[in-house]
Amino acid sequence: MAATGCDSSAERNGGHRARPSRRGDAARRAEEAERARPGDADWRIRSTGPPDAIEGYADRVSVLPGEEFGLYVSTTAPAFRVSAYRIGWYDGAQARLVWRSGRVAGRKQGVPLFLDATRTVRADWDRSLRVRTRNWPEGAYLLRLDASNRHQRYVPLIVRSRQARGRTVLMHAPATWQAYNTWGGFSLYQGQDGAYGTRSLAVSFDRPYAGSGAEKFLVYERALVVLAERLGLPLAYTTGMDVHLDPAVLRGASAVISLGHDEYWTPQQRQYVTRARDDGTNLAFLGANTCFRRIRLAPGPGGAPARTVICYKTAYRDDPYLVSHRDLVTTDFRQAPAPDPESSLTGVLYEGYPTDAPYVVLDSGHWLFAGTGVDEGDSFDHLVGVEYDRVTPGDPTPAPLRIIAHSPVVCRGRHSHSDSAYYTVPSGAGVFASGTMRWVEALMAGTRENGRNHGMDARTGAFVTRTTENLLRAFAAGPCGRTRPKPKDNVRAVYEAGTRLSWPEADTGTTERT
């Protein structure tokens, strides 16, 4: 799919020196006013009920403020309502009710459509209502479907930013949400019989998400949104798919934050995020297994753009792009026919699943750990997992690169390490990778949020929270290589000189899912 909105060299070279506009001042005042509003603690689901009690999906992954989207709902109840909650801090309530529908007649919708060629499930339901996002602020939203039988489900939606100059971009990962979605019996990991060999080769956004309807967002993204809003940083919201479609949103951004599970990227998204780094935009990868799968986006019913995620993985020889578009063949980025390991961007390389290990501090004096009180060798139980990344000497790795945490792990009997790493580039941009998928989850450790925190305690939650605060504040201030000490490369000191670590074998469907 063709992308639009590429930067001109003049805009790119001057992106971080632009003076704030009056519009920018107005936007900041609007953000401050929004954060000062009272929240609504009643945003959580109390009962999901049976799978068909109520479920739904939107015909847009994201919208600009004021745009409309359609909701497609199926329920066994006579009626339902929709409540739109914007996620934020809101003095601890963590969400605000922005809009609520009237009573909508409910009905059980028809059986889904199955596309044999790619084993794709599409609900293809009739539209239940249209919603206009008038006066909805930019942000991450949960649309809660409330059935008259008292059961509930979520539908996630991003009200995205058109531009992010001078702001920190939270880049949500709906392509990864959809890849793991088993609604209708099929995902990019398994078929209806649970086998990898019968998995979908393409998955559609025209179907609900299984479970609560927003599990990936709730586990891997929400806590970071809440923290960033609590800090009062100038924020912008987008998705990886929207960066693919229009990279102009990254122009002049202070930072781009990839959240806790951001596995599926198009080559175009990767190209534009790399360009933003090279123009001075800081990058943070707060998960593991990031930018691992190379995907394509295809239209949905009626030509709606980017409604299908295509990823053949180990069946890439069946990918029709193999003949004439080898660089777009949907296998892992590191694999043939166009190998391009993710470590050249993230600084680390995905190595394995599953593991559960303590996070071990290596460079306690690094500015990211300021105020945490840690010493070298201090550890935090269960913080490394369930997937992990490491620095791989000899493979494409930026330099100078500083390993600041080096955590021994055992994965399927193999002894290895998980690394947190930091590097800078000539533009001044700083890049941080946590090396563990549990980083964002750990922001909730020791609280009543997200009860499946893998045994992580309040001490771990405090450490990760303070480190993340240091990161977000520094990255929001502009190119971090100009305001913080530049990293002194320690890769050779940590790993023996000349060691070459092999990449893990191509995944056969046993990667993490929650």
Which characteristics define this entry?
DMFA2_C; globular; 27% strand; 514 residues; N,N-dimethylformamidase beta subunit-like C-terminal domain-containing protein; 7-stranded mixed β-sheet; alpha/beta
Task: Explain what the structure shows.
- The protein is α/β, with parallel strands linked by helices and 514 residues long.
- It is 18% helix and 27% strand.
- The chain is built from eleven helices and 25 strands.
- The protein has helices at residues 9-14, 22-36, 174-179, 215-220, 222-230, 240-245, 267-278, 343-346, 439-442, 458-476, 491-494, and strands at residues 54-58, 62-63, 68-75, 79-87, 95-100, 104-105, 113-115, 120-122, 129-132, 139-147, 152-159, 168-172, 202-204, 235-239, 255-258, 264-265, 282-285, 293-294, 296-298, 308-310, 349-360, 379-390, 401-411, 414-424, 430-433.
- Strands 14-12-15-17-25-24-23 form a seven-stranded mixed beta sheet, with helices on both faces. Strands 2, 4, 5, 6, 10 and 11 form a six-stranded mixed beta sheet that branches.
- It is globular and about 65 Å long.
- The relative contact order is 0.12.
In short:
Helices cover 18% and strands 27% of the residues. It is of the alpha/beta class. Strand 24 and strand 25 (430-433) form a beta hairpin.
Radius of gyration: 22 Å
Biggest sheet details: 7 strands, mixed
Quote the average pLDDT.
92
- Uncertain spans: 1-22, 497-514
* Portion in strands: 25-35%
Which structural category do the helix and sheet elements fall into? Answer: alpha/beta
Helical residue percent?
Answer: 10-25%
Shape: globular
The counted number of beta strands is: 25
Q: What gap, in angstroms, lies between the N and C termini? A: 31 Å
Strands of the largest sheet, in order across it?
14-12-15-17-25-24-23
Q: Please work out how many helical segments DSSP would assign.
A: 11
